[in-house]
């Protein structure tokens, strides 16, 4: 079972506009939607849709936290969150005239004592893998992620900012940086795929068994014990990139949990992400026929 931990969840508001946004002008959206968000939460939603055993936990508070609980319950995602006093944050993505604007809140102030409640919650479910995903709210430092990793026998994956990756001191099963995060975590050049592969190798040496790096339109790579695998992105009509990295990670984790090879795991991640970017927001697409998409993903060793 894969348990996800989201320290700083969000209600994701996605608004679509026909015209460009202009300073001082009132812009009226032609469409708007709300989704339960946060990296770990997104991953649990995708995992549930992929028929992988998962539980979502993390910190929730206020009316926005209530919305997330209700939304996940309605979509059939098992949850076991820890309550906090302040409201969970609200993040907004505006899609206007081919441009994407993201406005994110920092999140509520949190006392580090809540980590004890989170680790107790994790141990109660006995997961094989734990994913810690997303930003940390004010009041928490990267050492809380090390505390989660050290709290049980599970293999821990992380999808966090590059500065947080660089600060981690524990042993981890997997890290999922994007290109910028890979550069921030290693200080290495990441202009080319070859440079990204070398940076991923460096990150592995710092205590990560596998490194999955999302490279946007170029594809993704996975650096593991047997070397580096690269997969090109599917040629699809991209509507919204929100959740693309979470989808990639979900596909990889689901495949590794099934005992598949690194090549198959990376192909599965690319296939899942290709479905997600074809729709607005972080809603879960239909994954019927995904195995055929996974097999069609071209991978090669670097």
Furnish the topology, listing elements before pairings.
Blueprint (H helix, E strand, L loop, with lengths): L1 E5 L3 E8 L13 E7 L1 H11 L4 E7 L1 H13 L7 E2 L5 E8 L2 E5 L10 H12 L3 E5 L9 H8 L4 E5 L2 H6 L4 E4 L3 H8 L6 H12 L3 E7 L5 E5 L2 E5 L12 H14 L4 H15 L13 H7 L2 E3 L1
Parallel strand pairs: 1-4, 1-8, 2-6, 4-5, 8-9, 9-10, 10-11
Antiparallel strand pairs: 2-3, 6-7, 11-12, 12-13, 13-14
Helix pairs in contact: 1-8, 6-7, 8-9, 9-10
Describe the sheet with the most strands.
10 strands, mixed
CATH architecture: 3-Layer(aba) Sandwich
CATH topology: UDP-N-acetylmuramoyl-L-alanine:D-glutamate ligase
- As laid out across the biggest beta sheet, the strand order is 5-4-1-8-9-10-11-12-13-14
Secondary-structure class: alpha/beta
**Rounded mean pLDDT score:** 92
- What separation lies between the terminal Cα atoms? 31 Å
Number of helices: 10
Classified by CATH, the class is Alpha Beta
Percent range of helical residues:
25-40%
Radius of gyration: 18 Å
Shape call: globular
SSE topology string: EEEHEHEEEHEHEHEHHEEEHHHE
């Amino acid at each position: 079972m894969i348990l996800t931990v989201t320290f700083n969840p969000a209600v994701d508001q996605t608004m679509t506009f026909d015209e460009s946004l202009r300073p001082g002008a009132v812009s009226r959206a032609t469409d708007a939607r709300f989704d339960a968000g946060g990296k770990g939460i997104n991953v649990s939603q995708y995992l549930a849709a992929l028929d992988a055993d998962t539980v979502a936990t993390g910190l929730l508070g206020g009316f926005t936290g209530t919305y997330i609980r209700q939304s996940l319950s309605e979509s059939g995602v098992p949850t076991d969150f820890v309550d906090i006093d302040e409201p969970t944050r609200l993040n907004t993505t505006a899609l206007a005239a081919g441009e994407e604007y993201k406005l994110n809140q920092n999140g509520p102030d949190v006392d580090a004592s809540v980590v004890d409640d989170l680790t107790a919650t994790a141990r109660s479910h006995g997961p094989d893998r734990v994913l810690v995903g997303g930003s940390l709210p004010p009041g928490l430092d990267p050492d809380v992620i090390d505390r989660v990793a050290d709290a049980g026998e599970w293999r821990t994956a992380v999808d966090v900012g590059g500065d947080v990756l660089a600060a981690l001191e524990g042993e981890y099963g997997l890290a999922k940086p994007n290109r910028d995060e890979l550069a921030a975590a290693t200080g290495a050049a990441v202009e080319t795929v070859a440079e990204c592969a070398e940076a991923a190798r460096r990150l592995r040496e710092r205590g990560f068994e596998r490194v999955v790096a999302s490279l946007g339109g170029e594809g993704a790579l996975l650096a593991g014990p047997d070397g580096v695998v690269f997969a090109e992105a599917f040629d699809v009509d991209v509507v919204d990139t929100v959740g693309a990295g979470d989808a990639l990670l979900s596909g990889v984790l689901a495949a590794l949990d099934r005992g598949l090879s690194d090549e198959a795991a990376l192909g599965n991640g690319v296939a899942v992400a290709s479905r997600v970017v074809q729709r607005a927001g972080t809603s879960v697409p239909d994954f019927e026929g995904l195995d055929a998409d996974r097999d069609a993903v071209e991978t090669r060793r670097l």
